[in-house]
Design a protein that fits this description.
Pfam families: TPR_20 (PF14561). InterPro entries: Thioredoxin-like_sf (IPR036249), TPR-like_helical_dom_sf (IPR011990). About 55% of the residues lie in helices and about 10% in strands. By secondary structure, it is α/β, with parallel strands linked by helices. The protein folds into 3 domains: about 130 residues, Glutaredoxin, CATH 3.40.30.10; about 50 residues, no CATH class; about 80 residues. Helix 2 links the parallel strand 3 and strand 4. About 40% of the residues are buried.
Length: about 290
């Protein structure tokens, strides 16, 4: 499943700041308009045979219109391999709500009737193209559409080769350069986070690391190391609970460090995972 970005949506437009619906519509192609009446019949049903991308936008957020224009352009270039649906959040707030849109631009895919969050910030055309390529690959694996010819970025190719050779430091460097060149690219972010996690745990013994943290739950370094190990071995819920407890028990720079690590670990797990959703809500409660 595609991994959506963590909640550092610096370029996103907060829906809570919307006032009355704007009276005008953008003078650009907007794909097929999504309404509460046709969402299921025209888009969910279509996603059984073709990937669908839905974009929430508003005239009040120019960056969301730019994103819509990019998607419309790419949809034309891709020759109908996927369908574009357009949601004006001012005109169809109930659809935006149903899709759990918190900011705009907000893009969510439908594959086989299932939603897959894509991104919640303005992205470059190159980054969006990369996201769509990954989406089409996932859809093809489910028997929906064909696998696209994947074109990796040069730094990503370098990083994957380094990982294959077991050189985590070289892979980290490649991902850092990838992210510096394409700051919004979700695969640069994910690759770097995953590689840095592997670097942090490479010399740790799983049982000893977790036992040490359990015996001293307020020890910052022990807790961070244990949470890393737990996520790396698939025990994400204990990791989240551990760091949430530490956030409640710390303040200042220590709390910020734990929060940042927790957000980084969130990015390594499917954002639709109920454990992530719950932990994000618990984090908000702990901080505010």
């Amino acid at each position: 499943m595609l991994v959506a970005n963590p909640p550092n949506f610096g370029q996103a437009f907060d829906l809570s700041s919307l006032g009355k619906p704007a009276p005008t519509t953008p003078a650009i192609a907007v794909g097929k308009v999504v309404t509460k009446e046709n969402l299921a019949s025209d888009f969910v049903e279509l996603s059984m045979t073709k990937p669908v991308i839905l974009l929430c936008w508003t005239t009040r957020a120019p960056q969301s219109l730019d994103t819509l224009a990019i998607l419309d352009k790419l949809n034309s270039e891709d020759g109908g391999t996927w369908e574009l649906g357009s949601i004006d959040v001012d005109a169809a707030p109930e659809v935006a709500s149903a899709l759990q849109a918190r900011t705009v631009p907000y893009a969510v895919a439908l594959v086989g009737g299932q939603p897959i969050p894509l991104f919640e910030e303005a992205m470059t055309e190159s980054d969006i193209k990369s996201v769509i390529a990954k989406l089409l690959t996932i859809a093809a694996e489910q028997g929906i559409g064909d696998v696209p010819e994947e074109k990796l970025e040069p730094e990503e190719t370098e990083a994957l080769a380094a990982l294959e050779a077991g050189d985590l430091v070289k892979a980290e460097d490649a991902y850092k350069r990838f992210l510096a060149r394409m700051p919004s690219n979700p695969y640069a972010k994910l690759g770097l986070a995953h590689t840095q996690l592997q670097i942090r745990i490479i010399n740790l013994d799983p049982a000893q690391t977790i036992a040490a943290a359990n015996s001293a739950p307020l020890d910052l370094e022990s807790a961070l190391a244990a949470a890393d190990m737990e996520v790396a071995t698939g025990s994400v819920e204990p990791a989240f609970i551990r760091l949430l407890a530490l956030i409640k028990a710390t303040s200042g720079d220590e709390r910020s460090r734990v929060k940042d690590r927790l957000l980084e670990l969130f990015s390594l797990v499917d954002p639709a995972d109920p454990r992530v959703i719950k932990a994000r809500a618990d984090l908000a409660n702990a901080l505010f």
